[in-house]
Amino acid sequence: MYGDYGYRGFLVCSLGLQKGLEKITTIMMACLLLLIIVLAVHSLMLPGALEGAKFYLFPNPEKVKEIGLFHVISQAMNQAFFTLFFRGCGYGDFSALYV
């Protein structure tokens, strides 16, 4: 099942960096961009998509006042650090903060 990937990898590496790896990466990135655009357009065509986008992009100021601005900001920072810490397979990547 996975043996075919070895042959493909050998083929890409044998062509060299510019003819093999760079070419395949360019094609794959274009395909990924196309896939992202198709998924974004499809998700915006679903029923209730505009209400969801409004909820996501425009915060409710009354709710922020009720909870408190400091609490909202601290929870957002907690989420950001949690995401950085558990990136990938559970390994922390706080080195990105020092770049």
Walk me through this protein's architecture:
0% of the residues are buried. The chain has 99 residues and is mainly α. 75% of the residues lie in helices and 0% in strands. Helix 1 packs across helix 2.
Structural class: mainly alpha
Report the portion of residues in β strands.
under 5%
Mean pLDDT: 81
Task: Write down how many β-strands occur, each being a DSSP E stretch of 2 or more residues.
Answer: 0
Helical content class: over 70%
What is the CA-atom radius of gyration, in angstroms? Answer: 22 Å
Largest sheet: none
Helix-strand topology string: HHHHH
Overall geometry: elongated
Unreliable residue stretches: none
Helix count from the secondary structure assignment: 5
Euclidean distance between termini CA atoms: 40 Å
Question: Notable features of this structure?
Answer:
99 residues, mainly alpha
Gist of the model:
This protein has 99 residues and is mainly α. The protein has 5 helices and no strands.
What topology emerges from the helices and strands here?
Blueprint: H1 3-14, H2 17-45, H3 49-57, H4 61-67, H5 69-85
